[in-house]
Design goal:
about 160 residues; mainly alpha; 2 domains; 4 helices; about 0% strand
Length: about 160
């Protein structure tokens, strides 16, 4: 939803679709321009030129639309500021995590060996679980076969018993 609002706001702000033009400063400038335009429309609507306005409902609608667009632009500005902050924090954390100068090749080999042993262990466990599952299914099949046989014997016995009555 917010992505659609942001795209709509960017289109409304007449920003070209190149990434370098999606700047926070440009959106802030468009927001200020929209706020000034709204203030001018309100002054005209409620000021001296009130008698000259032919369609009051039309101007009320324009004011409401401009207020809505301003709030959408303001939301986009807040969203972009939050994105920039998160992007900067992520870049910093990523640079802190990967320090190429301090990488020890022996530690990497040990970690890789440990991971490969863990993968082998998990594969073995998965195979064991698959075997256990297969055995459980086989036992259920046998139990179903025995249950079906007993059910058949019971039906035959009931049929014989009903014929004796």
């Amino acid at each position: 939803m917010s992505a659609r609002i942001t795209l709509g706001v960017l289109r409304y702000a007449k920003i070209e679709s190149t990434p370098e033009n999606y700047t926070l400063e440009l959106l802030k400038r468009r927001l200020q321009e929209s706020q000034l335009l709204l203030a001018k429309i309100k002054r005209r609507l409620h000021g001296e030129e009130k008698e000259q306005v032919m369609d009051r409902g039309m101007f009320d609608m324009i004011v409401r639309l401009n207020e809505q667009m301003i709030s959408n632009v303001a939301m986009a500005v807040v969203e972009l500021e939050r994105y920039k902050t998160l992007e900067n924090q992520t870049d910093k954390k990523f640079k802190d995590l990967i320090d190429i100068d301090n990488i020890n090749k022996e530690e990497i080999k040990t970690l890789c060996f440990g991971l490969s042993e863990r993968v082998k262990s998990l594969e073995t466990r998965q195979g064991d679980l698959l075997n256990t599952r297969t055995k459980a299914i086989a036992k259920l099949d046998v139990l179903q076969w025995i249950g079906g046989g007993l059910w058949g014997i019971l039906m035959i016995w009931l049929a014989w018993l009903s014929s004796q009555i």
